[in-house]
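Appendix C reproduces, verbatim, an entry submitted by the partner laboratory led by Prof. M.T., so that reviewers can inspect both the input and the predicted structure.
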Amino acid sequence: MNLFYLKYFVELAHVRHYTKAAQNLCITQPSLSHAIAQLENELGVPLFEKNGRNTTLTRFGREFLVCAENTLATLDSGVKAARRSAAGEGLIRLGFVRPAGVEYVPRLAREFLEKNSGSDIHFTFDTGPTVTLLDDLKRGRYDVVFCSEPFGETQLTAVPVSNQELVLITLAEHPLANKKSINLDEALEYPMIYFTRESGMRAVVEELFEKTGKSPKIAYETQEDQVIAGLVANGFGIAVVPYMELLHRLGVSIIKIAKPQYSRKIYMVTDSSIYMPPVVEKFCEYVKMY
Protein backbone atom coordinates (compact mmCIF):
# COMPACT_ATOMS: atom_id res chain seq x y z
CA MET A 1 0.00 0.00 0.00
CA ASN A 2 1.38 3.40 -1.03
CA LEU A 3 2.29 5.48 2.03
CA PHE A 4 1.60 8.75 0.23
CA TYR A 5 -1.89 7.57 -0.64
CA LEU A 6 -2.55 7.01 3.07
CA LYS A 7 -1.46 10.57 3.84
CA TYR A 8 -3.63 11.92 1.01
CA PHE A 9 -6.61 9.94 2.30
CA VAL A 10 -6.22 11.28 5.86
CA GLU A 11 -5.90 14.87 4.65
CA LEU A 12 -9.00 14.57 2.45
CA ALA A 13 -10.92 12.92 5.29
CA HIS A 14 -10.19 15.92 7.51
CA VAL A 15 -10.73 18.69 4.92
CA ARG A 16 -13.59 16.97 3.05
CA HIS A 17 -12.92 18.98 -0.10
CA TYR A 18 -10.74 17.78 -2.99
CA THR A 19 -9.49 21.22 -4.07
CA LYS A 20 -8.55 22.33 -0.54
CA ALA A 21 -6.94 18.98 0.30
CA ALA A 22 -4.87 19.05 -2.90
CA GLN A 23 -3.69 22.58 -2.09
CA ASN A 24 -2.70 21.56 1.43
CA LEU A 25 -0.79 18.56 0.04
CA CYS A 26 0.87 20.65 -2.72
CA ILE A 27 -0.38 18.33 -5.45
CA THR A 28 -2.90 18.70 -8.27
CA GLN A 29 -6.55 17.75 -7.79
CA PRO A 30 -6.36 15.05 -10.53
CA SER A 31 -3.38 13.51 -8.72
CA LEU A 32 -5.38 13.40 -5.47
CA SER A 33 -8.42 11.91 -7.24
CA HIS A 34 -6.21 9.26 -8.85
CA ALA A 35 -4.61 8.37 -5.50
CA ILE A 36 -7.98 7.95 -3.76
CA ALA A 37 -9.31 5.85 -6.64
CA GLN A 38 -6.25 3.60 -6.49
CA LEU A 39 -6.68 3.21 -2.72
CA GLU A 40 -10.36 2.33 -3.08
CA ASN A 41 -9.56 -0.19 -5.81
CA GLU A 42 -6.95 -1.82 -3.59
CA LEU A 43 -9.34 -2.01 -0.61
CA GLY A 44 -12.33 -2.98 -2.69
CA VAL A 45 -14.72 -0.55 -0.97
CA PRO A 46 -15.62 3.15 -1.46
CA LEU A 47 -14.05 5.48 1.08
CA PHE A 48 -15.79 8.74 0.09
CA GLU A 49 -19.13 9.84 -1.30
CA LYS A 50 -20.44 13.16 -2.54
CA ASN A 51 -22.69 15.19 -0.25
CA GLY A 52 -23.61 18.31 -2.14
CA ARG A 53 -20.43 20.26 -2.82
CA ASN A 54 -18.56 18.47 -0.04
CA THR A 55 -17.02 15.02 0.24
CA THR A 56 -17.91 12.80 3.19
CA LEU A 57 -16.56 9.51 4.45
CA THR A 58 -18.49 6.30 3.92
CA ARG A 59 -18.87 3.81 6.76
CA PHE A 60 -15.82 2.00 5.37
CA GLY A 61 -13.94 5.30 5.16
CA ARG A 62 -14.61 6.10 8.83
CA GLU A 63 -13.35 2.68 9.88
CA PHE A 64 -10.28 2.92 7.67
CA LEU A 65 -9.47 6.45 8.90
CA VAL A 66 -8.82 5.17 12.42
CA CYS A 67 -6.37 2.56 11.12
CA ALA A 68 -4.66 5.01 8.76
CA GLU A 69 -4.16 7.65 11.48
CA ASN A 70 -2.76 5.06 13.90
CA THR A 71 -0.40 3.77 11.22
CA LEU A 72 0.88 7.22 10.33
CA ALA A 73 1.27 8.17 14.02
CA THR A 74 3.29 5.01 14.70
CA LEU A 75 5.47 5.67 11.66
CA ASP A 76 5.98 9.29 12.68
CA SER A 77 7.01 8.19 16.17
CA GLY A 78 9.48 5.71 14.70
CA VAL A 79 10.97 8.34 12.40
CA LYS A 80 11.44 10.74 15.32
CA ALA A 81 13.07 8.01 17.44
CA ALA A 82 15.46 7.11 14.60
CA ARG A 83 16.38 10.77 14.12
CA ARG A 84 17.01 11.17 17.87
CA SER A 85 19.29 8.13 17.76
CA ALA A 86 21.16 9.53 14.76
CA ALA A 87 21.61 12.78 16.69
CA GLY A 88 23.24 10.96 19.62
CA GLU A 89 20.18 10.59 21.83
CA GLY A 90 18.20 7.59 23.04
CA LEU A 91 18.53 4.64 25.40
CA ILE A 92 21.74 3.03 26.71
CA ARG A 93 21.22 -0.45 28.19
CA LEU A 94 23.87 -1.32 30.79
CA GLY A 95 24.64 -4.63 32.48
CA PHE A 96 27.29 -4.94 35.20
CA VAL A 97 28.61 -7.08 38.02
CA ARG A 98 27.38 -6.01 41.44
CA PRO A 99 30.65 -4.49 42.72
CA ALA A 100 30.72 -2.14 39.72
CA GLY A 101 27.15 -1.09 40.50
CA VAL A 102 27.83 0.22 44.00
CA GLU A 103 29.64 3.36 42.91
CA TYR A 104 31.49 3.14 39.58
CA VAL A 105 28.65 2.66 37.04
CA PRO A 106 26.12 4.97 38.77
CA ARG A 107 28.73 7.73 38.95
CA LEU A 108 29.67 7.25 35.28
CA ALA A 109 26.03 7.42 34.19
CA ARG A 110 25.22 10.47 36.31
CA GLU A 111 28.23 12.46 35.12
CA PHE A 112 27.60 11.46 31.48
CA LEU A 113 24.02 12.75 31.77
CA GLU A 114 25.26 15.97 33.35
CA LYS A 115 27.75 16.44 30.52
CA ASN A 116 24.96 15.92 27.96
CA SER A 117 22.18 17.69 29.86
CA GLY A 118 20.64 19.13 26.70
CA SER A 119 20.14 15.71 25.10
CA ASP A 120 17.35 13.16 25.57
CA ILE A 121 19.40 10.25 26.98
CA HIS A 122 18.23 7.47 29.28
CA PHE A 123 19.79 4.39 30.91
CA THR A 124 18.58 0.98 32.01
CA PHE A 125 20.59 -0.83 34.69
CA ASP A 126 20.83 -4.59 35.32
CA THR A 127 23.23 -6.71 37.37
CA GLY A 128 24.38 -10.31 37.07
CA PRO A 129 27.41 -12.61 36.98
CA THR A 130 29.91 -12.18 34.14
CA VAL A 131 28.86 -15.30 32.19
CA THR A 132 25.20 -14.25 32.14
CA LEU A 133 26.03 -10.65 31.26
CA LEU A 134 28.17 -11.72 28.30
CA ASP A 135 25.52 -14.14 27.01
CA ASP A 136 22.87 -11.41 27.22
CA LEU A 137 25.20 -8.94 25.49
CA LYS A 138 25.58 -11.34 22.54
CA ARG A 139 21.78 -11.82 22.46
CA GLY A 140 21.35 -8.05 22.13
CA ARG A 141 19.83 -7.43 25.55
CA TYR A 142 22.57 -4.97 26.54
CA ASP A 143 24.57 -2.32 24.69
CA VAL A 144 27.48 -2.31 27.16
CA VAL A 145 28.46 -4.52 30.09
CA PHE A 146 31.00 -3.98 32.87
CA CYS A 147 32.40 -7.29 34.11
CA SER A 148 35.44 -9.57 34.39
CA GLU A 149 37.62 -10.16 31.33
CA PRO A 150 35.76 -12.18 28.65
CA PHE A 151 38.31 -14.90 27.89
CA GLY A 152 38.05 -16.47 24.42
CA GLU A 153 35.24 -14.21 23.19
CA THR A 154 36.59 -13.13 19.78
CA GLN A 155 33.50 -11.15 18.74
CA LEU A 156 33.59 -9.02 21.88
CA THR A 157 35.69 -5.93 22.48
CA ALA A 158 36.93 -5.55 26.05
CA VAL A 159 38.64 -2.47 27.48
CA PRO A 160 39.94 -2.39 31.09
CA VAL A 161 38.37 0.63 32.76
CA SER A 162 38.69 0.17 36.52
CA ASN A 163 40.81 -1.60 39.13
CA GLN A 164 39.19 -3.40 42.03
CA GLU A 165 40.65 -4.30 45.41
CA LEU A 166 40.38 -7.88 46.64
CA VAL A 167 40.33 -8.67 50.35
CA LEU A 168 40.24 -11.72 52.58
CA ILE A 169 37.24 -11.78 54.92
CA THR A 170 36.79 -13.83 58.09
CA LEU A 171 34.62 -13.94 61.19
CA ALA A 172 35.65 -11.42 63.84
CA GLU A 173 36.61 -14.35 66.11
CA HIS A 174 38.74 -16.12 63.47
CA PRO A 175 42.50 -16.72 64.16
CA LEU A 176 43.35 -14.45 61.20
CA ALA A 177 40.88 -11.71 62.11
CA ASN A 178 43.35 -9.35 63.82
CA LYS A 179 45.69 -9.15 60.83
CA LYS A 180 45.67 -5.91 58.84
CA SER A 181 47.31 -7.56 55.82
CA ILE A 182 48.13 -11.12 54.92
CA ASN A 183 50.21 -13.38 52.73
CA LEU A 184 47.58 -15.64 51.18
CA ASP A 185 49.68 -18.69 52.11
CA GLU A 186 48.52 -18.15 55.69
CA ALA A 187 44.89 -18.71 54.69
CA LEU A 188 45.36 -22.06 52.97
CA GLU A 189 44.75 -24.20 56.06
CA TYR A 190 41.24 -22.83 56.62
CA PRO A 191 37.99 -23.83 54.84
CA MET A 192 37.33 -21.47 51.94
CA ILE A 193 34.07 -20.30 50.38
CA TYR A 194 34.68 -20.08 46.64
CA PHE A 195 33.02 -18.60 43.58
CA THR A 196 31.33 -21.04 41.19
CA ARG A 197 32.61 -21.39 37.62
CA GLU A 198 29.70 -19.29 36.36
CA SER A 199 31.20 -16.27 38.11
CA GLY A 200 33.85 -14.13 36.45
CA MET A 201 35.54 -13.89 39.86
CA ARG A 202 36.34 -17.62 39.83
CA ALA A 203 39.23 -17.24 37.37
CA VAL A 204 40.56 -14.19 39.25
CA VAL A 205 40.68 -15.96 42.61
CA GLU A 206 42.06 -19.18 41.10
CA GLU A 207 44.89 -17.23 39.48
CA LEU A 208 45.62 -15.62 42.85
CA PHE A 209 45.96 -18.99 44.59
CA GLU A 210 47.98 -20.43 41.70
CA LYS A 211 50.63 -17.84 42.51
CA THR A 212 50.97 -19.37 45.97
CA GLY A 213 51.69 -22.75 44.36
CA LYS A 214 48.99 -24.40 46.50
CA SER A 215 45.25 -25.04 46.37
CA PRO A 216 42.71 -23.77 48.92
CA LYS A 217 40.38 -26.04 50.89
CA ILE A 218 37.07 -25.33 49.17
CA ALA A 219 34.20 -25.92 51.60
CA TYR A 220 31.35 -24.27 49.67
CA GLU A 221 30.78 -22.67 46.28
CA THR A 222 28.27 -20.01 45.30
CA GLN A 223 27.93 -17.42 42.56
CA GLU A 224 27.31 -14.05 44.22
CA ASP A 225 29.91 -12.15 46.23
CA GLN A 226 27.24 -10.85 48.60
CA VAL A 227 26.09 -14.40 49.36
CA ILE A 228 29.71 -15.43 50.01
CA ALA A 229 30.05 -12.52 52.44
CA GLY A 230 26.88 -13.63 54.21
CA LEU A 231 28.18 -17.19 54.55
CA VAL A 232 31.45 -15.92 56.01
CA ALA A 233 29.53 -13.76 58.48
CA ASN A 234 27.73 -16.90 59.64
CA GLY A 235 30.85 -19.01 60.14
CA PHE A 236 30.85 -21.22 57.03
CA GLY A 237 34.45 -20.35 56.14
CA ILE A 238 36.71 -17.55 54.94
CA ALA A 239 36.79 -16.03 51.43
CA VAL A 240 38.53 -13.77 48.95
CA VAL A 241 36.04 -11.22 47.58
CA PRO A 242 36.03 -7.76 45.99
CA TYR A 243 35.97 -5.01 48.59
CA MET A 244 32.44 -3.61 49.11
CA GLU A 245 30.74 -1.45 51.74
CA LEU A 246 28.43 -4.33 52.63
CA LEU A 247 31.32 -6.04 54.42
CA HIS A 248 31.31 -3.41 57.16
CA ARG A 249 27.61 -3.90 57.81
CA LEU A 250 28.08 -7.66 58.14
CA GLY A 251 30.70 -7.23 60.84
CA VAL A 252 33.31 -9.47 59.22
CA SER A 253 37.04 -8.84 59.52
CA ILE A 254 38.47 -7.29 56.33
CA ILE A 255 42.12 -8.11 55.64
CA LYS A 256 44.26 -6.65 52.84
CA ILE A 257 46.09 -9.16 50.62
CA ALA A 258 49.79 -8.22 50.65
CA LYS A 259 51.05 -11.26 48.71
CA PRO A 260 50.83 -12.49 46.05
CA GLN A 261 50.49 -9.38 43.94
CA TYR A 262 47.39 -9.28 41.77
CA SER A 263 45.43 -7.10 39.38
CA ARG A 264 41.64 -7.34 39.41
CA LYS A 265 40.19 -5.25 36.60
CA ILE A 266 36.69 -4.39 35.53
CA TYR A 267 36.27 -4.39 31.73
CA MET A 268 33.88 -2.46 29.54
CA VAL A 269 32.67 -5.00 26.98
CA THR A 270 30.77 -4.40 23.72
CA ASP A 271 29.80 -6.67 20.84
CA SER A 272 31.71 -5.62 17.73
CA SER A 273 29.38 -7.66 15.48
CA ILE A 274 26.32 -5.54 16.36
CA TYR A 275 25.63 -1.97 15.24
CA MET A 276 26.40 0.52 18.00
CA PRO A 277 23.98 3.48 18.15
CA PRO A 278 25.66 6.91 18.24
CA VAL A 279 24.59 7.56 21.84
CA VAL A 280 26.17 4.25 22.96
CA GLU A 281 29.34 5.04 21.02
CA LYS A 282 29.47 8.46 22.68
CA PHE A 283 29.08 6.87 26.12
CA CYS A 284 31.85 4.32 25.43
CA GLU A 285 34.22 7.07 24.35
CA TYR A 286 33.38 8.96 27.55
CA VAL A 287 34.14 5.89 29.68
CA LYS A 288 37.52 5.44 27.96
CA MET A 289 38.44 9.05 28.72
CA TYR A 290 37.06 8.94 32.27
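The chain has a mean pLDDT of 91. Additional entries are available on request from the coordinating office.
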